[in-house]
TrEMBL record:
Reported function: Odorant receptor. Putative odorant or sperm cell receptor.
SUPFAM superfamilies: Family A G protein-coupled receptor-like (SSF81321)
All residue ranges annotated as the G-protein coupled receptors family 1 profile domain in the record: 41-291
Chief location category: membrane
Membrane-protein topology: Multi-pass membrane protein
GO molecular function: G protein-coupled receptor activity; olfactory receptor activity
Domain of life: Eukaryota
PANTHER family recorded: OLFACTORY RECEPTOR (PTHR26453)
Cellular component GO terms, alphabetical: plasma membrane
Organism of derivation: Balaenoptera musculus (Blue whale)
Keyword entries, A-Z: Cell membrane, Disulfide bond, G-protein coupled receptor, Membrane, Olfaction, Receptor, Sensory transduction, Transducer, Transmembrane, Transmembrane helix
Protein name: Olfactory receptor 10H1-like
Segments traversing the membrane: 25-47, 59-78, 98-120, 141-164, 194-227, 239-261, 273-293
Length: 310
C-alpha cells in the first residue's frame, strides 16, 4: 500500500499565497521589486569588486562569494514564487520540488558558512595583523570559499535525500510557497518519519548553531583585542571594519532562529507563510543594502563604478 501511495505522488500543489487571494497582485509587485533590487545590488557589488583593484583583498573576495550565493539562493526560490502569484496552476513536479529543496538548502547554508569565514577573516585582521597575509593567502582564501560551498552542498544533499526517501501518502498539498522540510514532513507517513525528522532538524540546527558559535567566539576575541587599543580613534577604526558583517550576522541568524528554533504550538497558515518571506525575500534584500551602506570603501568604489557607466 505504501508503494502504491508513493508512486501516485508525482507532483505537489504549492498552496503558498493562494490563502491571500485579494493580495496576490500586491505581493507580486512588492516581491518582484525586492527581487530585482536584490539581483542588481549583488551584481553591482560583484562587478565593483572585480573592477576595483583596491578591493582585491580577502574580505571582499568573501563578500563577492556571499553575493553569488545570495543570487543563486533567491533564483532557486523567488522566480517560481512570482510565477505562482500570477497563476492559478500551482503544481510542481516531484523532481522539481526535490531540486528546489536541494538548491535552496545548498545556497542557504553556503551563505551561513561564508558568514562564518568572514568572521574568521575579521578575527585574523584585528587579532593577528602581522600574520594576516600568511593566514589569509590567496590559496587559503580559495580553500575557505571552496569548503563553504562544499559544506552547503553536503547539507543540501543530506536534507533532500532524507526527505525524499519518505512515503508521501496523506496529501499532495504543500502549505507553503516553497518545497520546505516542515510542510513536506506533514505529508509523509511511515514508522521512520519522526526519527528522520529529528535527524534532519539536528543537522540543520547543528550547522546553524555551530556557525553562530564560531562567529561569537571570533567576536569575543575581536572585542578583547579592540579594548586593548589605547586610542579611541584606533578602536573606532578597527570596529568599523566589522560593522557591516556583524549587522548581517544579526539579521541572518535572527530570522533563521525564528524559523528553526521557534517553539512548537498552534500557528496559523497565514503567519507561517508571511514568516517564510523573512528568510527567502527580506534577508537577501537587506544584504546588499547593509554591506554597501556600512562599508565606506565599498560604497566609494560602487559610486565610482556607477559614474563610470553613466
Amino acid at each position: 500500500m505504501q508503494g502504491a501511495n508513493l508512486s501516485a505522488v508525482t507532483e505537489f500543489i504549492l498552496i503558498g499565497f493562494s490563502i491571500f487571494p485579494h493580495l496576490q497582485l500586491m505581493f507580486f509587485l512588492l516581491f518582484l521589486l525586492m527581487y530585482l533590487f536584490t539581483l542588481l545590488g549583488n551584481l553591482l557589488i560583484m562587478v565593483t569588486i572585480w573592477r576595483e583593484p583596491s578591493l582585491h583583498m580577502p574580505m571582499y573576495l568573501f563578500l563577492c562569494a556571499l553575493s553569488i550565493s545570495e543570487v543563486l539562493y533567491t533564483f532557486a526560490i523567488i522566480p517560481r514564487m512570482l510565477a505562482d502569484l500570477l497563476s492559478t496552476h500551482h503544481t510542481i513536479a516531484l523532481m522539481a520540488c526535490a531540486s528546489q529543496m536541494f538548491f535552496s538548502f545548498t545556497f542557504g547554508f553556503t551563505h551561513s558558512f561564508l558568514l562564518t569565514v568572514m568572521g574568521y577573516d575579521r578575527y585574523v585582521a584585528i587579532c593577528h595583523p602581522l600574520r594576516y597575509n600568511v593566514l589569509m593567502s590567496p590559496r587559503g582564501c580559495a580553500c575557505l570559499v571552496a569548503w563553504s560551498w562544499a559544506g552547503g552542498s553536503i547539507v543540501g544533499l543530506v536534507v533532500t535525500s532524507a526527505i525524499f526517501q519518505l512515503t508521501f501518502c496523506r496529501s499532495n498539498e504543500i502549505y507553503h510557497f516553497v518545497c520546505h522540510v516542515k510542510p513536506l514532513l506533514k505529508l509523509a507517513c511511515g514508522e521512520n518519519v519522526f526519527t528522520l525528522a529529528m535527524g534532519v532538524g539536528l543537522v540543520c540546527i547543528t550547522a546553524l548553531l555551530g556557525c553562530c558559535l564560531l562567529i561569537l567566539l571570533s567576536y569575543a576575541f575581536i572585542v578583547a583585542a579592540i579594548l586593548r587599543i589605547p586610542s579611541a580613534v584606533g578602536r573606532h577604526k578597527s570596529f568599523s571594519t566589522c560593522v557591516s558583517h556583524l549587522t548581517m550576522v544579526v539579521v541572518h541568524y535572527g530570522f533563521a532562529s525564528v524559523i528553526y528554533l521557534k517553539p512548537k504550538g498552534p500557528q496559523s497558515l497565514e503567519a507561517d507563510t508571511l514568516m517564510g518571506t523573512t528568510y527567502t525575500v527580506l534577508t537577501p534584500f537587506l544584504s546588499p543594502i547593509i554591506f554597501s551602506l556600512r562599508n565606506k570603501e565599498l560604497k566609494k568604489a560602487m559610486k565610482k563604478t556607477i559614474l563610470n557607466k553613466l
